[in-house]
Amino acid sequence: MTTATLTQLNALTGGLFLLCTFGIVAMRQVLGILKMFILQSIFLSISAFLLGYIHMSIHLFAVAALTLMVKPLLIPYLLKRMVGNEVTARREISQLVDIPSSLLIAVLLTILSYFIANHLLSNTTPIISKVNLPIGLACLLLGAYTIIVRQEAVAQTIGILTMENGAFFAGVSIAPDLPLIAEVAAAFDVLIIAIVMGLLARKIYEKVGITTVGEMNHLREVEKL
Amino acid sequence: MTNKIIFNIIQVIVVMSLSPLVKGVNDRMKEWIQSRKGPSILQPYRDIYKLFHKDEVVSEHCSWIFRITPYLVFITPIFVTLLIPVLTDYPLFFAFMGDMLGGGFILALGGFFATLAAVDTGNPYGPIGASRTRMVGFLAEPVFMIVFFTVSFVAGSTIPYIVQKAWVTPLSNFFEPSHILVMLAFIMLIIAETGRIPVDNPSGHFELAMIDESKGLEYSGRGAALMKWGGCMKFFVLLCIFLNVLVTPWGLASENNIGAVLLAVPLVLIKILAFVIVLVIIESSLAKLRLFRITEFLGAAFITSVAAMIMYFF
Amino acid sequence: MILIYILIIPIIASLLTVLPLGKRWPEGVSIISSLLVFLLSIKTAISASDGSVITAINGWISCDGLSALLLLLIGFVSLVSSIFSWGYMEKHLSQRQWRKKRRYYYRLALFVFSMLCVPVFSQIALVWVAVELTTLFSVFLVSFENTTDALEAAWKYVVLTCMGAALALIGILILYWGMRAVSSEPFTWTGLIHSSDTIAPSLLKTAFLFILVGFGTKVGLVPLHTWLPDAHSQAPSPVCVLLSGIETTTVLYVILRLIPVLGSSPSINAGNWFIAAGLVSVAVAAFLLIQVRDYKRLFAFSTVEHMGIIMVAAGIGTASARMGATYQILAHSITKSLCFFAAGALFIIAETREIGSVRGLIRTSPLTGASLLIGGLAIAGAPPFAVFLSEFSILKAGIEAGRYIPISLLLIFIITAFCAVMFHINSMVFGRPSNSKVTVQLPPSIILSLVIAVVPVLLFGIYVPVKLEHLLINAASVLGR
Q1: Is C123 helix (H, G, I), strand (E, B) or coil?
Q2: What are the residue ranges spanned by the domains of chain B?
C-alpha cells in the first residue's frame, strides 16, 4: 500500500475516533459510553498501527499492541468486574446539560481545538500530524467536558480515560519515537487509573449507596442552607 | 439532443415504475427479518392500482390545498428526477434547471403542501402529524445544509454530476474521513426524512404515535394512491442521490447510447436493493425513539456532518 | 548509585510491610526506611550543594541542586510523617485492624517512592508518569478513614488531578514534538534547555500553558484548587503532611523546571503568566482563609496561598527572587508539616475539625497549643520564622525588579492571609476551655514528631547552615539560565 492510501486510512480512523468521542458525550447509558470508549480505543490502536507502518517504527507497533490489550479489553473487563453490573448498566439521569446542548458545545470545542492545532501546525509538518493533533486535542477537551457534565462515577472515569486516549492519539503522530519505556509506563499508568477509580467507585457505592458522585457536595466552606 | 430527452424520460419512467418495487422489497425484508412471511414484493403496485379504482371522498370543509396536494406530492419527485443522475453519469436534457439545492427545495415543496393539507381537513390527527413532521424537518434542515455545503466545497460545485466524481477520483478519496462522515450523516437524514425507525414507524397503526403517516389519513381513492406513489418515489429519489452522488457513483451509463442506459437500470436497482438491506437491518436492530429524543438523533447527525466539514476544512 | 538506593528503599519497604511479622513490624519498617532515605538524601544534598550534578544512569536518573533540595524535603517530611503515623494508627485503629494498618504503610511507602521519583527522573515523559503515580498511590490514603466525606474528597482528588495530568501529558508531547523538530538530544531537562532557543515559540508557549494548567491543578492553583482543601483536610494527618507539605511542591517543581526552558522570550512572556496565576491563587486563598470553619482546611488553603507566592517569585525571575522562591519551598515544607502535625494532635485531643468548638488549647494541652501557635505564626509569616524571611526576600526582590503593582497586591494578600490565620489560631489556642474534658495523653511518637518538626521551623528563620545555603543558591541557579 502506498503512503498516500495509508495516510487516507489514518485520516478515516481519525474521523471515526472523533465520532466515538462525540458518542461518549452523547450516550445516555453508562454501558453505551463504555462501548464507545472501547471502539475509540480500537481506533486509537489502528491509528498507531497505521502510523507505525508508515514510519516503520517498532515503537508504534508496540504502542498499538499495548493499547489493544489494555484499553478495549482489560479496562472494560476490570471496570465491570470492580464496579459491578448494576452500576454499569445504569441510566444516566442526572446530567448537568442535556444532550443536544452537550453536542453543540462538543462541536464548539472541536472547532476550538482545530484552531489551537492550526496555530501550532506549520506548513512543513507532515500531513499525518495535521490529522491526529487536532483530533487528539478535541478528544482531550471533550473528555474534560464529559467529566464536568456527567455525574456518574463510571462515566467520569471513562472521561479521564478518554482524555488520555486523546493525548495518546495526538502523541502517536507528534511524538512517534518517545522512549518505549515511557510509553509502557504510560499504558500501565492508564491501567492503574482505571483500577484505582473503579475501586474507589465501588467503595463509594458500598459506603454511600450512590455512584452519582457529582451529587456529593458536602465539603465546602459555607454551610448549605 | 433527442437522445438526452429520451433518456430523461426513461429516467422518469424508471423512477415511477420501480419505486413501489423498492418499497415492496423493503417491507418484505423487514417482515422476513422478524421471522414472518410478509406481503408479496408487488403489494405496493396492487395497493396503488386498487386505490385508483376507488371512490374519492373529500371533506366539504377543506380547501383547494387539500385537493392539489396529492398532485404536488406526486409531481415533485418527478421534477427532481429530471435533475439528478439516476441512470447516467452525464447531465441530461433538463439537468441544467437546478442543482442539488434546487432538488432539495422541490422535495421540500411537496412536504410543505402535505403538511398544509394535513392541517386543512380539521382531522385532529393531521395537525399532530404535521407539527411533528415540521419538528423533524427543521431539525433535519441544518444537517441537509451542512452536508450539501461540505459536498459542494469538496467538488467546487453543487451540480450533482460534478459532485459524484469528486469523491472517487482518485479512489483513495473514497476513504476521506469527511466523505465517510457525510455518508453517515446522510444515512441518518434519510432515516429521518422518510420516517423510518428509530425516528418514526412507517408500519405503525396507532395515530397518536404517528409522525409521517397521519398526514395522509384523510385521503382516499385517487388522492391516497398519488400520495402513496409520491412517497415511494421520494424515497427512491433520495436513495438515488445518496447512492449515485455520494457513495457509489459506479454502474451508471457513461456512453450516450440507449444500450448503456438500459444496462444501467438493473445495476442501479441492485445498488438500491443492497442499500435497502442495510436500511432494514438498521431499522430492525433499533427501537423507535421517543418523540423528544428525535432531537438527539438529529443532533447526532448534525454533529457528524459538522465534523465532516471541520475535517475537510482544516 | 546513591539515587538508586533512594528509589529502591521505599519499594523494598512497601514489600516488607505486607509481610505479617509482628505487631510493630510495619511501623518499624516504615520509620527505618524513611530514616535511611532521609540520611541518603542528606548525603545527596551535601554532594549537590557545591553545584555538581549527581548522575546515576546517564540521561535517565540524575540530580542537581533543585532536585536535591526536593529530595531532602521529601526525606525529612516522610520521616517525621512515618513517626507520627505510629501514634496516629495507635489512636485510630484497634488491634484487630492490623490488615488495614499494613495496607496503610504499604501505600505510604509507595506514595513516598512516587514522590522521590519526580525530582530524580530526568526523562520528562517519565516525570509525568511519576507525577501521575503520586496521585494514584495517594488516593486510598486520602480515603483511608472511609467516611462519606473522605470518599468524596478522594474522588474529587483523583478526578481533577488525573484530568490535569492528561492536559499536562499533551503539553509534554508538544514539547517533545517541538524539540524533535530542531535537535536530536535526549528528552531530558538539560537536553530541553540546550535546544530551547531553537524550538518554535508557538509550540513552546502552547506546551507551557497546557503544563501550567495541567500540573497547576495538582499544585492547587486557583481556579483548579477545588479538590485541594477537601483532600488535604479529609486525609489522615500524617498523609496531609505529605500531601500539603511536599506533594504540591514536588509537582510545582516540574512547572518551575520550565522557567529556564521558556527563557526570556518576549513572545512567550512566561513571567507574567506565572505572576498572574500566582497572584490569583494568593488572593482567592487569602479571602477563603477568612471564612474557613475547619482548621485542617485552614492549613490547606494556606498551602494554596504559599504555592501562589512561589509562583509569583518564580515569575519575577531575578536572581534574588529565585533565591526567595527556593527558600520559600524549603520554609513552606517544614512549616506546613509542623502545622499539620499540630492539627493532627489537636484532632486526637478534640475529636473535631471545627475551629469554633476548640478553645483554650494552651490550657488543655500545652504542647499541642504551643506547637499550633508556633506553626500558625510561622506559616502566616511572623518575623522570627523561615516563612517570614522567604516572603520578605521575595517582596524585596520584586521591588528591586520594579514590579510594584504585583508586589503591592501580593503584600496586601499576604497581610490578609496573616490576619485570617492568626484570627483562627488565636481563637483556638487562647480563651477559656469550653468544657473541662480530661486531658488526653498524646502518644510519645506524636510528641516526638512534633518536637522534630518544630526544630527546623525555629532554626531556619535565624540560622541557615552553610551547606544548606549553598544548596539553596544552587537550586536557585537551576531555575535561571
Answers
A1: strand
A2: 2-141+203-286
Q: Which of A143, A179, A208 sits opposite C148 (nearest CB)?
A: A208
Q: Is residue A220 part of a domain?
A: no
Last residue of a domain, one of C121, C140, C171: C121
| C82 in Cβ contact with C30 (< 8 Å) | yes
pLDDT digits (tens, 9 = 90+) for B169-181: 777 778 888 888 9
Q: Are residues C277 and C383 in the same domain?
A: yes
Are residues C117 and C127 located together in one domain of the fold? Answer: no
Range of the domain at A192: 3-208
- Specify which residues C354 forms β-bridges with: C294
A86 min Cα distance to partner chain B (Å): 22
Question: Is the Cβ–Cβ distance between C348 and C442 less than 8 Å?
Answer: yes
- Contact assessment for residue C476 and residue C393, using Cβ atoms and an 8 Å cutoff: no
Residues C466 and C328 in one domain: yes
Q: How confident is the model at residue A224 (pLDDT cuts 50, 70, 90)?
A: very low
Q: What's the CA gap between C76 and C70, in Å, rounded?
A: 10
- Other C-beta atoms within 10 Å of C264: how many? 12
Residues C93 and C65 in one domain: yes
Does residue C233 register a pLDDT over 60? yes
Phi, psi of B189 (to 5 degrees): -65, -45
Residue A92: per-residue pLDDT: 64
Return the number of other C-beta atoms located less than 10 Å from residue C437's C-beta.
11
Do C476 and C367 fall within a single domain? yes
Residue C127 lies in a domain: yes
Average confidence score pLDDT of chain A: 86
Q: What is the ipTM of this complex?
A: 0.94
> Once rounded to an integer, what is the mean pLDDT over residues C202-231?
92
**Does C253 reside within a domain?**
no
Phi, psi dihedral angles at C293 (to 5 degrees): -120, -5
Start-end of H helices in chain A: 3-26, 30-55, 58-69, 75-83, 85-88, 99-120, 127-149, 153-174, 180-208
Query: Tell me, what's the pLDDT at C264?
Result: 65
DSSP assignment of chain B, as one string?
-HHHHHHHHHHHHHHHHHHHHHHHHHHHHHHHHTT-----TTHHHHHHHHHHTSPP---TT--HHHHHHHHHHHHHHHHHHHHS-SSBSS--TTGGG--HHHHHHHHHHHHHHHHHHHHHT--THHHHHHHHHHHHHHHHHHHHHHHHHHHHHHHT---HHHHHHHTTSSGGGGG-HHHHHHHHHHHHHHHHHTT-TTT--TT---GGG-SSGGGGTT--HHHHHHHHHHHHHHHHHHHHIIIIIII---S-B-SSSHHHHHHHHHHHHHHHHHHHHHHHHHHHHSPPPPGGGHHHHHHHHHHHHHHHHHHHH-
Higher pLDDT, B20 or A176: B20
Chains B, C in contact, 3 or more Cβ pairs below 8 Å: no
CA distance C74 to C112: 8
Whether residue C481 lies inside any domain: the answer is yes
pTM of the model: 0.90
C409, C472: one domain:
yes
* Identity of the amino acid at C316: I
Cβ atoms B163, B207 nearer than 8 A: no
Candidate from A22, A118, A134 with C-beta closest to B303 = A22
Neighbours of chain C (3+ CB pairs under 8 A): A
Above pLDDT 90, what percent of chain A?
42
Chosen domain end from C244, C278, C296: C244
A 194-213 → C contacts, CB under 8 A: 196-197, 199-201, 203-204, 207-208, 213
How many inter-chain contacts (A to B, CB under 8 Å) are there?
70
Pairwise CB contact (< 8 Å): C174 & A120: yes
Q: How many domains does chain C have?
A: 3
Poorest-pLDDT segment among B40-54, B215-229, C348-362: C348-362
Considering the domain boundaries, does residue A222 fall inside one? no
